[in-house]
Amino acid sequence: MCPRVKKQMVLVIFEGITDQDALGQIFDEYFSTQNVRVALTHGDITARDSINPSNIRATVGDIVRGFLKRSKLKAEDLAQIIQVVDTDGAYIPDSSIIESTNLQRFRYTLSTIEGADKSQIVKRNERKQSNKN
Question: What pTM was estimated for this model as a whole?
Fold first, then answer.
């Protein structure tokens, strides 16, 4: 009798539930021959003030280790790790950022980002760009 081989899984890391809702089924179908599991980062880690190019890999590693611990799995149980990130206008020209002091959150249009503090949006976009490169 042959020993049973455990099927490896694909871990997909999404920023939030809306990303998972929009794309989760696509990953399930694409990797239909493998078990797809999901981890949520509960926000865009590339935009966090504490994240920079020197620590982003370690941060993603912490997310993976936390998932493995919660799931009682080992690293060798994973065939692939996929992190889905969005750009949220990170590459939009500064001239397309509009300051609207009455806004509590960002508002995105097809050609602009609006927010209460233009300088903060510019800094966030620069951080997102450097963390994704």
Answer: 0.77
81: exposed, middle or buried (C-beta count within 10 Å: 0-12, 13-18, 19+)? middle
Phi, psi dihedral angles at 50 (to 5 degrees): -80, -5
Secondary structure (DSSP) of 41-87: -SS-GGG-TT--TTTHHHHHHHHHHHHHHHHT--GGGEEEEEE----
pLDDT digits (tens, 9 = 90+) for 118-129: 999 999 999 999
Q: How far apart are CA 90 and CA 92, in angstroms?
A: 6
CB 24 within 8 A of CB 14: yes
CA 124 to chain centre: 15
